[in-house]
Amino acid sequence: MNVLLSIRDMKTSIGQYHVLHGVTFDVREGGVFVLLGRNGAGKTTTLRSIMGLWQPSPASITFKGQNIAGMTTADIARLGIAYVPENMGIFGGLTVQENLILATTKGRFDQIRLRRIYELFPALEQFWSKQAWALSGGQKQMLAVARAIIEPRDLILVDEPTKGLAPSIVAAMGEAFREIALTTTILLVEQNFNFARSLGRDMAVIDDGHVVHRGTMADFAADSDLQGKLLGLSA
Amino acid sequence: MDTISDTLGRFGGVYLLPLALGAVAFILMGAPSSWVTLTIAGLAMGMMVFLMASGLSLVFGLMDVLNFGHSAFISFGAFVAASILAGLSGWLEGGWFLASAALALALLGSIAFGLAAGLFFETVIIRPVYRDHLRQILITMGALIVSEQLILAIWGGTPFTVARPTFLEGAWIIGDVSIEIYRVFAFVLGLSVFVGLMLLLNRTRIGLLIRAGVENREMVESLGFKINRLFIGVFMLGSALAALGGAMWAGYETLITPALGGEMMIVVFIVVIIGGLGSIEGTLLGAIIVGLTANYVGFLAPKLALASNMILMMAILMWRPSGLKPAVK
Fold it and tell me: Do residues B22 and B37 lie in contact, with contact meaning Cβ atoms separated by under 8 Å?
């Protein structure tokens, strides 16, 4: 299977702090790639560096064979990468419809994709004309994900989508990601290991700005000692 | 059970404030004709301050830029318009059509100057200091001082008389009430600009981007939009509106000095802060409240006139720290 995103020795500093010290991993086309790690390990910084929101070392990120390190965030997004940040990045003063319209290239919806979104997240159709600040946390997360898939993308970067959500919403979100992953590659940062295990095909563990483990999720899920060592999970 | 705030919200919420202010002033004055005259003066002043402040609010909200140089656009707008009117003084006495054309040219001239100056200011002065508030304050204050000196060098230090078309001179007298025609014109122009801005922000894709950018610039970029282009556009729009506000204020004062912009800037900052950063509706509301307060207090307690707007700002910020109608909830 082709490599969609390749990261080589990516170093990122924020101000005077060196956060990533040489991150290396490949994301294959299709399915869900999960990036695991403890708090402060550098997972969010990795996603933000890929997106160009923080500038990583030159020539360290290749997407569809093209070096994207140093490109502007807008140009990276136009290449087909969508980003769902940890805080969801919802525009609270805009309606659900306006939030989604902004994510379209020409300001028009593809009705087939819109119907698919309504099926995945029925609440968005119900609150279509409501301002987004009035939505619940789960509904905001649905809107953030819907915004990432309202048009075809090759890669979606999702940062901790289950954080603070009720178990029923987490389950619905899992179903949605499974369906989205049939047509789009997802790079998922997640602290909820059970959720990550249920979705991931490939995975990496990041610690202190380095990738300390790479492999398949099936192998990692079967090795409780490794989970305990790298993530501090008890059997 | 509904709180007082919920109940007020159903009847208009913060939009009731100008009405409440008017009602209190009416009771305290006890002279309906004076009240009507001062209310119209306050609304006209509010609309002119709104023109000056709306652009600054958008620039503040969208770009997170503290632009103390904004008052330079107000001053230059005033002097450019006054110079065009002085140059076309023959037209001002040549009948309604020619006088209107002179006025339109003066206002358009100030807008054109504001657009060009805004483009220069954003690209040369503001862009190198994005995300650095201390340097923004220092560099925009510096630019303001240079601008004031430029005005002094070009127009001199003596007060400049502003010519006005004859159809905007004088007042309509209705019973005991005197309504200055220029104030009505300022009110109608300000209201038209407000409607135009609301249409731009709520009915166009650019407007949607501006509203989104005020809330979360990073996310706008992550959706594939070049935020820097939006910054230039909004900065130019803000500068043009400030210049238009300055031109209108020049016609209102009829005698202007290079210090005009600096004098108005305190009021403009108060309006932007009490209205809520990045909010056009909030800016209009703040401007009208400030305009009405200045006129009512000037009549009822002249010694408190200078302090009134500061007291107003402190009271509103204690009640609503993000302003009356903030763009970001």
Answer: no
The total domain count for chain B is 1
C-alpha neighbours within 13 Å on the C-beta side of residue A5: 31
Q: Both tokens of residue B59?
A: 């620039």
Q: Which residue segments constitute the domains of chain A, with CATH numbers given?
A: 3-89+152-231 (3.40.50.300)
**Lookup: tokens for B34:** 């004076």
Residue B234: pLDDT band with limits 50, 70, 90: very high
Nearest to B60 by CA among B243, B290, B274, B208: B274
For residue A150, give the chain B residue with the closest CA. B223
DSSP of B141-199: HHHHHHHHHHHHHHH-SSPEEPP--GGGSSEEEETTEEEEHHHHHHHHHHHHHHHHHHH
CA distance B47 to chain A (A): 25
Task: Supply the CATH number for residue B54's domain.
Answer: 1.10.3470
pLDDT for B6 beyond 90: no
Q: Please compute the mean of the pLDDT values over residues B99-107 and round it to a whole number.
A: 96
Instruction: Collect all residues of chain B within an 8 Å Cβ-Cβ radius of residue A91.
Output: 211-212, 215-216, 219
CB-nearest to B219 from A72, A89, A131 is A89
pLDDT digits (tens, 9 = 90+) for B117-144: 999 999 999 988 887 889 999 999 999 9
More confident residue, B18 or A16: B18
Is B326 within a domain? no
Q: How confident is the model at residue B95 (pLDDT cuts 50, 70, 90)?
A: confident
In a 13 Å sphere around the CA of B30, the CA atoms on its Cβ side amount to 2
Are the C-beta atoms of B221 and B231 separated by less than 8 Å? Answer: no
Question: SS3 of A156, please?
Answer: strand
Domain ranges, residue B48: 18-319
Q: Using CA atoms in the order B194, B196, B201, B203, what is the torsion angle rounded to 10 degrees?
A: 140
Residue B196 — very low, low, confident or very high, per pLDDT cuts 50/70/90? very high
Contact A93 B222 (CB under 8 A): no
Contact assignment for B222 to A77 by CB distance below 8 Å: yes
Q: With contacts defined as CB-CB under 8 Å, which chain A residues touch B216?
A: 89, 91
B261-278: b (≥16 Cβ within 10 Å) or e: bbebbebbbbbbbbbbbb
The answer to whether A56 touches A49, Cβ cutoff 8 Å, is yes
Nearest to A161 by CA among A178, A140, A180: A140
Per the domain annotation, does B12 fall within a domain?
no
- The number of angstroms, rounded, from the C-alpha of A221 to the middle of its chain's C-alpha atoms is 20
Nearest C-alpha neighbor of A129 from the set A150, A98, A103: A98
- Residues above pLDDT 70, as percent of chain B: 97
Confirm whether B6 is domain-assigned: no
Residue A130: CB atoms within 10 A of its CB come to: 15
Query: For residue B306, is it within any domain?
Result: yes
